[in-house]
Amino acid sequence: MGRQRKSKADQDRYLQLRDGWYYYKRNVPTAVLLLDERAPRIRVSLKTDDLAIARAKRNLLEAGDEALWASLVEGDESNLARARHQAVMRRVEALGFSFRSSQALADSPSFNEIAERVEVLLSDRIEKETAVGLLGMTPVPATSVSEAFGVYCDEIVADELVNKSAVQKAQWKKVKQRAVNNFIAIVGDKAMAEITRDDAQRIYRYWLERIAPKEGRATHSASSGNRDIGNMRVLYDAYFQHMGDEERKNPFAGLNFSTRKKRSRPPFPSEWITGTIMKPGALATLNDEARGIALALIETGARPSEIANLQPSSIRLTHKIPHLAIEPRTDPDDPREIKTASSERLVPLVGIALEVFRRHKAGFPRYRNRENELSAALNKFFRANKLFPTAQHKIYSFRHTFEDRMKEGGLDEELRRILMGHTIDRPRYGAGGSLEWRAKELRRIALPFDPSIV
Fold first, then answer.
1. What is the DSSP letter of 267?
2. Which GO molecular function annotations are given, in alphabetical order (predicted)?
3. Yes or no: is domain 270-453 CATH 3.30.70?
4. Where in the chain is the domain with CATH 1.10.443?
5. Are 423 and 340 in contact (CB under 8 A)?
6. Would you state the torsion angle of the CA atoms of residues 449, 451, 452, 454, taken in this order, to the nearest 10 degrees?
7. Cα(107)–Cα(104) distance, rounded to whole angstroms?
């Protein structure tokens, strides 16, 4: 059944046309009559005779009022303070202005903006909260770091998380939550507006002691410290921009550690793959799906998570050129992002990879949305069975080996980038070569194998 069209009355809810101008008019709900100073009725001039503009401004005011009233009913003081602030921001926006702090207005090189705001105040009856907000004098509510992180996840970046799987969301949040937890453990769960440069430097010194201790060996890399401080810097900026205080100086600005070039995981030598990993019996005691994924990595160069999360529709064995479609999952009940836009690609199936997918036509349901379990299982098995040449090798080394084999085999550089899902540093034209051509090139470097190992 298709979505029903809204009636005209519903589209124009809370709008009143008077003397050619639109107003936002609605009653304050009974449940909050004694809590909203504007009760019993709200009436705001929208300063327009254009219905489309009036609807857009109505939407701003409606959203602010709904959130405010919900917080009034809940009675949570911190949520209420934020809801009041957000409602004021929307009222200011509905008047045709951006919400700005008084300091930002004072620092503005143009006097006209202040004059325009004062003119609106003098020419209209505006309730006190909106008037104060219009002049940038509404204080940002005292929200603790932990509360601000909740606002960040639930409101500020909520749209960015929509297409992530549950595992991806958990991984995304885990790293950022660590930064918040470390800040609270070292400094305390301070109000965001009270964080000082000294607080930020305490976090810097905490990491400095672990990255470059005066005595003993380092326990953490520079990237760990940069990640923590960077996540606090992003949270601070995002929160105050969300609250309309875009000019606030960030206490975490400029604090970072020098990093060396990241050490790449070593690739497997090709002879190690054929003589040790693909030796009959080497993977026999590994469960079927984990074994299939490990072998599929050899001739696809894919990330383990990309293979584990393939949908049956992305395994295309009946096409003229059998191939995988590595792509995001768009099912709203089970979404999943891929790493980057360039990671979306078609990979021909050749050699051992084709044999694997002939056996696993529906993919690997045991590890779908369980890529962490897959990584742990494969790394544990390879270590226990001495299938890694060195302690530095990991399952991800298959991907580096694939890239090296393509380079040593003389495959076109752009083709290598496409098959690896890497960015191409020039405008892309066409589809990057036919699947027939891609498959022909990959067959040239395919490793020999015994079908019994699948």
1. P
2. DNA binding
3. no
4. 270-453
5. yes
6. 90
7. 5
